[in-house]
């Protein structure tokens, strides 16, 4: 029963979408790469038919859109085929990006929770900080990322921390907003209850507000960790970084290595999926321990 | 300590019970955007130790507000209240009462035993004392064996019983109950009324009970306070001690019961509770 439902509920719908995407991808690759082949044939003065062009559109060195199997071959080659310490290993680059993602995410979570706690307990902070928190997210990250790198470099901070700072800058926001909502989620009745016990503000916080906020925190952490990854990649772009997924993207676009770009993109997507899934699994485990009714 | 009720009607009683809750000429006005709302006006009421007093009246008559004033959850704008000879705030800080809300208000992330432990943790009791109070109070409300369940695994009636156990675990002198069975169906309510009476007989605690059910009020109370709305005030106080202390469910068909119920209904009518 549970086996068949795993197939029906998970594998079948996801598999169908994956197959559809690959089919569309192949079709798009043929359409987008055909003009180059026609151009080549015209210059050589030979007439080619569609069926001669078809295989060639999927084997170009620098295609407009590489075919899926080219990207997967590149992925295979740069993950399994290279030593992890190699500068050409995608796992090495992923690790560079991942480390600043995780550091930035941790910093963002701490900052977001701290802001939320302040905002919930002090009305002045609510009034003075909230507009700035919202404004901070309206500034395009691409504009502010180089500034952060330059300023931090000027005070002698380089390497992991500047990139992590950009991740933090993006990821603290959903945490702060979600956590503020969560800390305010206890009903009036529960707050009255704590009052009838003559509970102190800190007892009310630890025993009522904080546990009530946990489901909100889990949800916002899922959003935060994926944008922390975006922040880390964006942080690698303007710095001329030599390592990291962002650096791979940048190098790929300098040299027209579309296959390399796409494999880095897929790697980033897989990494994001993995991160969100990890938070999700941890979140579900926490929720179950806190007595949330299984769906 | 002085006994404000002594000089009035309570004098007739032979063993003089101590007045534990005393309200003198209590006023409470809420300032709203539509102007002031007189939630309570000129409330004077004495409740003696060990009494079961019901506050009955239509919505908006201030019965819940009166209970919340006693519990120091609302501040009166005039008059005075004393609880156990203290101000309501001092009584709250001394944890003189246990409060039971309309809903069970159990924390969903805590098991039943951990929910009952909540006030005990706040009080700073050690683990052994907590464990023994949890056990004895769960037994008192017939919930032994449900310690490890989460609230959603229990029926509404069981949840409310757990919340009563939680209020009793504080070992307060009195119980303040705000329509505790209002959200439950008739059958469960009958059952819990019976259990509450037994509990009251066993613990001898003073109970102030808000309800809008006439049979419930008559069945449970030694004294019924009939309130009327706009402004919230006391219309009449009806004595139910004629029903005795041993009250099986079928006492509700007795002539005495029906007479008191009729008296309450007449009181509500005279207090304009049935006006449109």
TrEMBL record, chain A:
SUPFAM superfamilies named among the record's database cross-references: MetI-like (SSF161098)
Residue ranges crossing the lipid bilayer per the database entry: 12-33, 92-119, 139-161, 261-283
CDD domains named among the record's database cross-references: TM_PBP2 (cd06261)
Keywords, sorted A to Z: Cell membrane, Membrane, Transmembrane, Transmembrane helix, Transport
Top-level taxon in the UniProt lineage: Bacteria
Entry membrane topology: Multi-pass membrane protein
Domain ABC transmembrane type-1 positions: 90-283
Location(s) in or outside the cell: Cell membrane
Database matches in InterPro entries: MetI-like (IPR000515), MetI-like_sf (IPR035906)
Gene Ontology CC annotations of this record: plasma membrane
Biological processes annotated in GO: transmembrane transport
Family, similarity comment: Belongs to the binding-protein-dependent transport system permease family.
Record's protein name: NitT/TauT family transport system permease protein
Organism: Hoeflea halophila
TrEMBL record, chain B:
Gene Ontology molecular-function annotations: ATP binding; ATP hydrolysis activity
Matching InterPro entries: AAA+_ATPase, ABC_transporter-like_ATP-bd, ABC_transporter-like_CS, ABC_transporter_ATP-bind, P-loop_NTPase
Keyword Ligase: no
Family the UniProt entry places it in: Belongs to the ABC transporter superfamily.
Residue intervals of the ABC transporter domain: 23-254
Superkingdom to which the source organism belongs: Bacteria
Protein name in UniProt: NitT/TauT family transport system ATP-binding protein
Keywords for the protein's UniProt record, in alphabetical order: ATP-binding, Nucleotide-binding, Transport
Pfam family, one: ABC_tran
């Amino acid at each position: 029963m549970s086996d068949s439902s795993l197939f029906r509920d998970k594998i079948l719908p996801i598999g169908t979408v994956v197959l559809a995407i690959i089919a569309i991808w192949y079709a798009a690759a043929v359409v987008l790469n055909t003009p180059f082949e026609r151009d080549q044939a015209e210059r050589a003065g030979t007439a080619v038919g569609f069926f001669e062009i078809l295989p060639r559109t999927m084997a170009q060195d620098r295609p407009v859109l590489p075919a899926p199997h080219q990207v997967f071959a590149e992925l295979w080659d740069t993950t399994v085929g290279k030593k992890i310490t190699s500068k050409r290993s995608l796992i090495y680059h992923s690790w560079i990006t991942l480390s600043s993602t995780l550091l930035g995410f941790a910093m963002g979570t701490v900052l977001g929770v701290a802001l939320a706690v302040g905002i919930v307990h002090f009305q002045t902070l609510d009034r003075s900080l909230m507009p700035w928190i919202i404004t901070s997210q309206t500034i395009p990250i691409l504009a502010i990322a180089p500034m952060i790198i330059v300023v931090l470099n000027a005070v002698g901070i380089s390497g992991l921390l500047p990139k992590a700072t950009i991740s933090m800058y993006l990821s603290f926001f959903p945490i702060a907003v979600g956590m503020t909502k969560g800390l305010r989620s206890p009903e009036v009745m529960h707050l009255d209850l704590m009052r009838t016990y003559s509970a102190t503000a800190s007892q009310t916080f630890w025993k009522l507000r904080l546990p009530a906020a946990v489901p909100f925190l889990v949800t916002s952490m899922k959003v935060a960790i994926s944008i922390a990854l975006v922040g880390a990649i964006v942080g690698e772009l303007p710095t001329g970084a030599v390592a990291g997924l962002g650096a791979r993207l940048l190098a790929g676009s300098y040299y027209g290595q579309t296959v390399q770009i796409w494999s880095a993109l897929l790697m980033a997507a897989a990494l994001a999926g993995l991160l969100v899934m990890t938070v999700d699994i941890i979140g579900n485990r926490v929720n179950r321990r806190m007595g949330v009714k299984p769906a | 300590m002085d006994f404000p009720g002594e000089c009035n009607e309570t004098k007739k009683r032979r063993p003089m019970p101590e007045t534990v809750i005393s309200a003198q000429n209590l006023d409470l006005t809420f300032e709203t955007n539509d102007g002031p709302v007189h939630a309570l006006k000129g409330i004077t009421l004495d409740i003696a130790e060990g009494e079961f007093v019901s506050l009955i009246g239509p919505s908006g008559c201030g019965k819940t507000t009166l209970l919340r004033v006693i519990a120091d959850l609302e501040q009166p704008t005039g008059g005075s209240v004393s609880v156990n000879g203290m101000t309501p705030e001092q009584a709250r800080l001394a944890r003189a009462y246990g409060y039971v809300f309309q809903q069970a208000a159990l924390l969903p992330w805590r098991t039943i035993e951990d929910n009952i432990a909540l006030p005990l943790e706040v009080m700073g009791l050690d683990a052994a004392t907590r464990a023994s109070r949890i056990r004895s109070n769960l037994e008192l409300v017939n919930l032994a064996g449900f310690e490890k369940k989460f609230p959603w695994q229990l029926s509404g009636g069981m949840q409310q019983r757990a919340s009563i156990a939680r209020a009793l675990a504080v070992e307060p002198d009195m119980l303040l109950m705000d329509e505790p069975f209002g959200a439950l169906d008739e059958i469960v309510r009958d059952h819990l009324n019976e259990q509450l009476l037994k509990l009251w007989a066993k613990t001898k605690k003073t109970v102030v009970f808000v309800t809008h059910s006439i049979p419930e009020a008559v069945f449970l109370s030694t004294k019924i306070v009939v309130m009327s709305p706009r402004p919230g005030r006391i219309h009449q106080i009806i004595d139910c001690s004629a029903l005795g202390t041993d009250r099986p469910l079928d006492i509700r068909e007795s002539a005495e019961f029906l007479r008191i119920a009729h008296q309450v209904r007449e009181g509500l009518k005279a207090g304009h509770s049935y006006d449109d």
